[in-house]
Amino acid sequence: MNTATTTQGSHDSRGHDSSEHDSGEHHDQNAHDHKPKGIMRWILTTNHKDIGTLYLCFSFLMFLIGGAMAMIIRAELYQPGLQIVEPNFFNQMTTVHGLIMVFGAVMPAFTGLANWMIPMMIGAPDMALPRMNNWSFWILPMAFAILLSSLFMEGGGPNFGWTFYAPLSTTYSPPSTALFVFAIHIMGISSILGAINVVVTIINMRAPGMTYMKMPLFVWTWLITAFLLIAVMPVLAATVTMVLTDKFFGTSFFAAAGGGDPVLFQHIFWFFGHPEVYIMILPSFGIVSAIIPTFSRKKLFGYSSMVYATASIAILSFTVWAHHMFTTGMPVAAELFFMYCTMLISVPTGVKVFNWVATMWRGSLTFETPMLFAIAFIILFTIGGFSGLMLAITPADFQYHDTYFVVAHFHYVLVTGAIFSIMAAAYYWLPKWTGNMYDERLGKIHFWASLISVNVLFFPMHFLGLAGMPRRVPDYALQFADFNQLVSIGGFAFGLSQLIFLVVVVKCARGGEKAPAKPWEGAEGLEWDMPSPAPYHSHTTPPVIK
Amino acid sequence: MHKKIIIGAASILLSLSAAAEIETPSKYNLTQGVTDTSQQVYDLHMIILYICIVIGIVVFGAMFYSIINHRKSKGAVAAQFHESTKVEIIWTVIPFVILIAMAIPATSVLIDMEDSSKSDITIKITGSQWKWHYQYFDHDFGFYSLLTTPQQQIQNYSHSTNIEPKGENYLLEVDRELVLPIGKKIRFLITADDVIHSWWVPAFAVKQDANPGFINEAWTRINEPGIYRGQCAELCGKDHGFMPIVVRVLEQKDYDIWLQQQLQQVASAKKAAEQALASTLTMAESMTLGEQVYLTRCAACHQVNGAGIPGAFPALKGSAIALGDITKHIDIVANGKPASAMQAFSKQLTAKELAAVVTYERNAWGNDTGDVVQVTNVNLTEAK
Amino acid sequence: MDEQSLKRKNGKLSLKLMLVIPLMFAFGFALVPLYDVFCQVTGLNGRIVVNNAPSSLVIDKSRIVRLQFMTSIAPGMPWTFEPVVKYVDVHPGQNTVVKFKARNLADLPTVGQAIPSVSPGLAAQYLNKTECFCFNSQPLDAGESVEMALVFFISPEIPPEITTLTLSYSLFNVTKLANNNITKI
């Protein structure tokens, strides 16, 4: 527990003990809360900001752990041959890296942002279901403790890829698979509870006058994401349950011998898995749609088309799952259907990108760190979108599938997409959270270091994939050596760059130039009407919506 | 301004396409391959790439134009517009039209790729952890194809000894290549024994999953003789990175000669097996042959020193099976252990090799049982 | 709105959303039979149509379709298993019998289950099996051999461009499963 723990801790101590004068108003609002002190405060808290902080800190911790695993992967791949880890351990690293980044870093970070920002944005005092909120967070560290502990079991942890295709994950998996299944169940429950809370908050807790079409896009995208989560996380739970019973209780859902079919696993998994991809990117769209207008000092272009585009992406996401499975031997008709749907999904996504560019067009632009991350998001996410469009072309997908081209594609979408947007959000709202401005110079250093290293890390992967390097291999042929070395160097640099972010956040939490209620000139939204740092309880009396 | 963008885009496109022709295709770009299909796939790849580049230039161009010219520090004042139904319809329809234009050639290539009828040769490909088996369906013979890169080249751990420099075809070399003729329509029937594998040769643009219990089809017609290399493309366990595919493509007449040789070899191997049944193996002979077999087939899991990997692959050194009943030992090597990574080697090894490797396991690493397994022992177990 | 009624409203909505969870969880499982139906209709993965009545259709003498046979033996299955003929040429609509030979090499009784798969997948719906050893599992005593029959016909509706079909059987060792079932009974 690090950064924002100190955030809350420090401003509280300021509020209660030392400098009454600088936030007297803040103190008054806190005074009627009987918060336990120390660790119990965090364990028992039902406050949306505390829980948001917990989610964000947890997510950053997971980002570092998953990142450390990526460093092991890149160190092994630095040169051909097996130098550092055994192939079986390498497979555990790729698997757990994927699981941690998806379920431990990206998703909790978005839930943390939702907790912090949604009540403030819609004019509510807190989330609708505060006690459930506490639970949905606190079962998450348990899930990951279980998952990580499985690495130390005899036979090792999960080694079948984060997609855990049967029968590699059933008949041929290590005994620790039971723990893996259990951990996924808990993560799923946590996500579902979080999503229910978001839906109920948005539908029931909006301030009078906050109609749906007046909601900030971050709220809209999260509402849609939450519905996606509620719809598909149970399907994932069903999938892992079938894996569990196939492995331990003699069922044959995925085993041909008993009349099952391993390809069925992939259908069910990707029925969850593809909406999951959008779960990890839709909130990003909301964040970027908040930041770009702020620093362009111009209203978001095409608000309503943004809402419709988000909704249509969410709906279409249920019709494209089999584009992950073109090589499994589908009938041509099915391949064509999924190819067309996948190509179609790029239309609403394109609309969003065009809208952002149109928002910047003839604006009055400044380039603070959140804006830099948001612009990088648009460009690099679009590059990820382009490679996605290429992957949609089924005949070409036969060549790209399961190569580093795919690895490059989804890292562009998830790292320079989702994670860059989370970074942008953190810089954007840090003044509101801590009451202090972050160190702009360090923020810019963090941005440029990340931008350059992330491209050195992921761009050459396109070439590796096109040249024929399969993914998830611990060793490779000599013609791939120089690009892999470059990629590894980019990887180490990107990993180190994130430590700068840690420094920025800790520094900002501890003090710095005091932030005004609205630190960004062009910002709009209810959160900026509140003082910085935001009082412990958000809008205790409903704000007036203009 | 629009003109400028278009000229800029065109010139970048031109320089890119020029660059694409000069550079070696295998390093920065998809291979054009040696089949009509792979050429069509390459063309699709280039078209969609160029479309993406053009869209990228337009969108990012507009963006950078405003980043440069519409900055506050240059005194830009924000305009007030924030919607335009007309513009929004235009940029929904244009991508849609582009996509339809793209879908048409993609559809026709795909339909062609999936039509494996009227083939001349059928090859059954079976993936198993971690090797490929090729069966020439029309001629009733087949063989396993295993990685030949020695562990001394692969293992560069700090504790590794005898590290050798890596060869030219490191990790992409096998003991027996799949041999195919040019110009014939070859149909692959692909399946797997244990987990899902995926048979991929980039030069043919063939990648098809091998699903245990089910068969999948793919086909190719190769235009040029040569040696083409690929790899397993679906994570299939520990040695997923170590099951390459090598295809040697010959002119028809060379292929016919090769085929005759193979058929003769199959016949003489049968004879040799009968002779081996009558002969007696010595300890020294068995240990030499057994060690060879062990290193290529067993050491990946049970390790060179017989210690295995705790929790994943059992040790053979001092194990109950290697020191216990010979029949049981032979049975597990010959028939495998159901639902585990231990395969049935009776299909993969000759009886002589089987006998030798069991002898080796019973006498190496201090397992000094002194047993010498004979070919007749092996056959007896199998026949039971 | 007062706090009490808001709480009630929140509770109600969250309850409704919670109902979606078991529904979608069940949907995940429902995908299993749905997939089977989908496979039957589209011929995905070469699932085969079971047809109990032999063909009484008019034999289409103008066409010949070749049906190839292929066998795989799963790891841990101590049997030999192969078709007596590698292929047959048949007219659509014609009832045909083919035999497969199996022999148990192990010194224990073993139960085998053959899993069929047809390629090209789309052709599977035209391959009608009226009798097949793959409908049930096959027990064999130690060292026992057996000849197993497959009776099938190919529907005359088969598209003319399909001239070759491949029928593959993967033979699995299901002794454990079979024994479990016996003890259960």
Low-confidence stretches of chain B: 1-7, 13-25, 380-384
The DSSP helix count of chain B reads: 11
How many independent structural domains of chain B? 3
Please report the distance between the alpha carbons of the first and last residues of chain B.
Answer: 86 Å
Structural class of chain B: alpha+beta
Quick structural summary:
Chain A has 546 residues and is mainly alpha-helical. Chain A is built from 17 helices and no strands.
Task: Give an account of the 3D structure.
The complex is a heterotrimer of chains A (546), B (384) and C (185). With 546 residues, chain A is mainly α. Chain A has a single domain, classed as Cytochrome C Oxidase, Chain A. Helices cover 68% and strands 0% of the residues of chain A. Chain B folds into three domains: 103 residues, Helix Hairpins (Orthogonal Bundle); 149 residues, Sandwich (Immunoglobulin-like), CATH 2.60.40; 105 residues, Cytochrome c-like domain (Cytochrome Bc1 Complex, Chain D, domain 2). Helix content of chain B is 46%, strand content 15%. Chain B contains eleven helices and ten strands. Chain C is of the alpha+beta class and 185 residues long. Chain C has two helices and ten strands; from the N terminus they run αββββββββββα. Chain C is flat and about 80 Å long. Chains in contact: A-B, A-C, B-C. Chains A and B meet through α5, α11, α12, α13 and α14 of A and α2, α3, α4, β7 and β9 of B.
